[in-house]
């Protein structure tokens, strides 16, 4: 995000580490809206996102802090090994629930209007839309093995995050 890049630019001349975390997988359940009731995952056009478990990112941060000097400057992308779009999420939901969920792309303006119609301030709705715009540009698509190598085990797949959310 622009504010993250600005923070890195202003880090100064001394040593620093900037964590380049994948997008939090815990966000996905918040994007589902009424998909489980209607069978439609309706949201603006998106792109692939390396949905990454928050707990893994917290553990990675602790490991990096405990190993002073491991990274000087930005880390490599600390992400899940694959990037998925909301069409993939709909397929996962279909598989996990046994009920069809299809991806429906709605125009940006209609999505923002729906949010503001439910009381979300316009500035916040536009900020949230920015997530979809960035995904379309591929800004969240970086995926790789670095997080798993740091942790010494596989990253939690989005499927497991969704399964846990569905149990609640």
Structure explained in plain terms:
There is one protein chain. The chain is mainly alpha-helical and 168 residues long. 49% of the residues lie in helices and 7% in strands. The protein has 9 helices and 4 strands; from the N terminus they run H-E-H-H-E-H-E-H-E-H-H-H-H. The chain has a two-stranded parallel sheet with strand order 1-3. Helix 5 packs across helix 9 and helix 6 runs antiparallel to helix 7. The chain is globular and about 50 Å long. The chain starts with a helix and ends with a helix. The mean pLDDT is 92.
What's the topology here?
Blueprint: H1 2-9, E1 17-18, H2 28-31, H3 35-38, E2 40-43, H4 54-66, E3 73-74, H5 86-97, E4 102-105, H6 108-117, H7 122-136, H8 146-151, H9 158-167
Parallel strand pairs: 1-3, 2-4
Helix pairs in contact: 5-9, 6-7
Return residue spans where pLDDT drops below 50 for at least 5 consecutive residues: none
Structural class: mainly alpha
Please compute the radius of gyration using only Cα atoms: 17 Å
Tally of DSSP β-strands: 4
The helix count comes to 9
What fraction of the residues are assigned to beta strands by DSSP? 5-15%
Describe the global form: globular
Distance between the termini: 31 Å
Please name the defining characteristics of this protein:
two-stranded parallel sheet; 9 helices; 4 strands; 49% helix; globular
Short description:
The protein is mainly alpha-helical. It is built from 9 helices and 4 strands, in the order H-E-H-H-E-H-E-H-E-H-H-H-H.
């Amino acid at each position: 995000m622009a504010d993250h890049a600005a923070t890195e630019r202003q880090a100064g001349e001394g040593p620093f580490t900037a964590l380049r975390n994948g997008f939090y997988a815990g966000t996905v359940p918040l994007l589902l809206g009424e998909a489980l009731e209607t069978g439609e995952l309706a949201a603006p056009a998106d792109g692939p996102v390396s949905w990454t478990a928050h707990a893994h990112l917290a553990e990675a941060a602790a490991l990096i802090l405990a190993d002073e000097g491991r990274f000087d400057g930005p880390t490599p992308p600390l992400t899940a090994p694959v990037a998925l779009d909301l069409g993939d999420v709909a397929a996962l939901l279909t598989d996990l629930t046994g009920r069809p969920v299809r991806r429906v792309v709605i125009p940006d303006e209609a999505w923002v209007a729906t949010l503001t119609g439910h009381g979300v301030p316009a500035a916040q709705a536009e900020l949230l839309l920015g997530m979809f715009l960035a995904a379309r540009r591929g800004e969240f698509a970086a995926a790789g093995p670095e997080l798993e190598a740091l942790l010494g085990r596989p990253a939690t797949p989005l499927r497991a995050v969704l399964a846990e959310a569905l149990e609640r």
